[in-house]
UniProtKB/TrEMBL annotation:
Signal peptide from the UniProt entry: none
Gene Ontology molecular function: isomerase activity
The keyword Nucleotidyltransferase is assigned to this record: no
Keyword terms, alphabetized: Isomerase
Keyword Nuclease annotated: no
Protein name, UniProt field: Sugar phosphate isomerase/epimerase
Species the sequence originates in: Williamsia marianensis
Domain Xylose isomerase-like TIM barrel: 23-276
């Protein structure tokens, strides 16, 4: 009999609460584990502390999300290759089987040139799956002021204010470049206007990780509760449950706009209920 699909909670889903709060919610609600988002919050960068929390709350760390967001460009240094290697080491230390990584940014030319070889070498050495995530074009006006340096680089490459351009050196659809392992993010697919089912099929057996979330097709990345947007979340879940998918499904939803912890808990509970219902093995 095939094992149930592990359903985890991303620590990003409780922002602006912290990493320990994610463990608390996940433990209370009955999640199977955690995805550690490594970013500015100090505890997320302290792997010994995360291991302590994993033991304390009796929840495994299923995956590590490398610090590759714009807001985490200086977390664990400024060398993206070294940061990815450190993320893999963190996954090994925590017993996680997967590292989630975004494609390189346009201005990370050296990193982009060696990205595939770096992933291959790290996977061979560690046995950790490095799952490259599908992304989306961004409106450059979102970066002006907030991310002035990044916006300037995009503007010089033809992305004036309001333009929708890719910030990435490789395709926003990682299947265009071909990697051994992938993360499918349904909110990113919505923002990109991509067909999630077609992408799922192209990823095939290389799909190791699902960010179970939703989007309406807005120009910004929404990370809605699955079922609250326009993405084929039910179809994706049922397809994985019926097949040989052996990775994890991680709820990566936005709760930053809620006013109370009770509201956040309700969103995380509803997300888990959706996942349990539609990822159940036949």
């Amino acid at each position: 009999m095939r094992e149930d699909i592990a359903i985890g909670l991303s620590t990003a889903s409780v922002y602006p609460q912290n990493t320990e709060a994610a463990f608390q919610y996940a433990n209370d609600l009955g999640y199977d584990g955690i995805e550690l988002m490594v970013w500015a919050e100090p505890v997320s960068q302290d792997i010994d502390r995360v291991a302590f929390l994993s033991d304390r709350y009796h929840l495994p760390v299923l995956s590590v999300h490398a610090p590759c967001l714009l807001i985490s460009q200086r977390v664990w240094g400024r060398d993206p290759a070294a940061k990815l290697a450190r993320s893999v080491a963190a996954a090994e230390d925590l017993g996680a089987g997967t590292v989630v990584v975004h494609p390189p940014f346009r201005w990370q030319r050296k990193y982009a040139g060696g990205f595939r070889d770096l992933i291959d070498a790290l996977e061979d050495d560690s046995g950790i799956d490095i799952a490259v995530e599908n992304m989306f074009p961004v409106r450059t006006d979102r970066f002006f002021g907030k991310y002035e340096e990044a916006a300037g680089r995009m503007r010089r490459r033809g992305g004036g204010p309001g333009a929708a351009v890719s910030a990435f050196a490789t395709s926003i659809d990682p299947t265009d470049d071909g990697f051994a392992h992938y993360t499918l993010d349904l909110s990113h697919a919505a923002t990109a206007g991509a067909d999630a089912i077609e992408m799922l099929n192209r990823m095939g057996g290389g799909l190791r990780h699902l960010h179970l979330t939703d989007g309406s097709g807005a120009a910004v990345d929404e990370h809605l509760v699955p079922g609250d947007g326009s993405q084929p979340c039910v179809q994706v879940c049922k397809s994985l449950a019926a097949g040989n998918f052996s990775g994890s499904a991680i709820l990566e939803v936005t709760t930053s706009s809620v006013n109370t912890k009770a509201e956040r808990r309700e969103i995380l509970s509803r997300s888990l209920d959706f996942a349990r219902t539609h990822l159940e093995r036949p």
